[in-house]
Amino acid sequence: MTGAEALDLYQIEGGVPLNGEVQIQGSKNAVLPMMAASVLQKGCVCLKGCPDIADVQCMEQILQSIGARVWRIAGDLYVDCKEIDTGVIPGAYADKMRSSIILMGALLGRMGRIRVGRPGGCTIGERPINLHLSVLEALGVALEVEDGVIYARADRIKGGYYKFPKRSVGATENGILAAAAADGETVLENCAREPEIIHLCQFLRSMGANIVGEGSATIHIEGVKDLHETCFEVPADRIVAGTYLLACAVTRGNIRLTHAPIGEMQALLRVYKEMGGQYEVKGGKLIADSRHLNRPVPYLKTEEYPGFPTDLQSLLLTLCATIPGESRIEETIFEDRFKAALQIKHMGADVRVEGRVAVINGQNLHGATVKAEELRGGAALVLAGLGARGITRIGGICHIERGYQDICGDIRSLGGNISRQSTEEL
Ligand code: EPZ
Prior knowledge:
Layout: H1 3-7, E1 8-13, E2 19-23, H2 28-37, E3 44-48, H3 54-65, E4 69-73, E5 76-80, H4 91-96, H5 103-111, E6 113-117, H6 130-138, E7 142-146, E8 149-153, E9 161-163, H7 169-179, E10 185-189, H8 195-206, E11 210-212, E12 219-222, E13 230-233, H9 238-250, E14 254-258, H10 266-274, E15 278-282, E16 285-289, E17 300-301, H11 313-320, E18 326-330, H12 339-344, E19 350-354, E20 357-361, E21 369-371, H13 375-387, E22 391-395, H14 397-400, H15 407-413, E23 417-422
Helix pairs in contact: 2-3, 2-8, 5-7, 6-7, 7-8, 9-11, 9-13, 11-13
Bound molecules: ligand EPZ.
């Protein structure tokens, strides 16, 4: 992050009910494993409607660093994997983005040996990778970890059996990617059920992979030697859609979301309705009316899909901070994901954290200067600014722009008063 980036900020004047229509961008968490999967074939893949966000740009750089060619035409990303000639992923990338670890399974399938830096933890938790390493070992991969660098080797990945001791989205994806071109059949049990797993398997199937069971606990993969080129539509981002629904709720507005993956948002929509939000689906659009939203959340816990997503926890917490009455939210997935809650206390929020449970008593928020420390917590600060009286300034926006293609433009299209500034201009 350059000095300049560190000084960029969002300025928000809150108190305006959002109103209008916004189109939801392509999914970050769906497209990153698809970009990794592209190295399993030796031609070119096209990812239509690929979001232009910092995490995708980082994955583009990683792919280019191993010999792939990457370019964009309008909103579509092209990845040409003909010339990939190394399994060594430069260490700097592992720190910059956890998802570099997702390349392991795919790159091993192609290069037979890889070297990748151990991804850093981040502010939401320690983020271990033991499950990634275990599933690869179950498929015959020899692994060594030395000074934070992972060395993996497998002349041929062999189909095998592995039961995850706990559900992990990334480790499930790594297992599928390693098994897709392996010798023989693989059975993975206690897999993550997130939509991103389903999208990855559909993408791989469009490349010729032989996979059944995605979206359930057990996935069967029959390795296929020659996976081939494909052109695939990136699905809409369920967390970005949830972000804008909650932004509408915080401002008691009413908006229309186009291209929202409504089927993947059921846990959020249930809570939204219980709080007094109203919505309908018309012509494929999600039409949300938050004008009568006024009920707190007595108790909610984040869970693996199809439960309430951890990625929307800090945004829901921010909404609860504006609703009179006591709300309780338990974070069960990551061990340190209440940082944004502590930031909104500077805006007058009444929040206390008791172990894994945040207790919130809603009241009016006022503008303040706050700082994003991670992606979804940063988005929660944007929502707090929209719901607060007065001016809010948010630093650390590079975290937010890892996952949101144009959060300012999107919110402005809904009538929100937000601008991106560099402190040099102030
Ligand atoms: C994915 O992260 C998402 N990231 C996260 O979204 C999301 O919060 C998370 O899934 C849960 O839904 C991407 O898809 C790029 P996990 P991932 O492995 O795969 C523990 C965002 O904001 N664990 O399902 O890293 C882990 O510590 C990001 O877009 C191990 O113990 O999550 C956590 O407690 C944030 N060992 C739990 O499992 C492992 O080897 C779930 O993590 C791996 C994970």
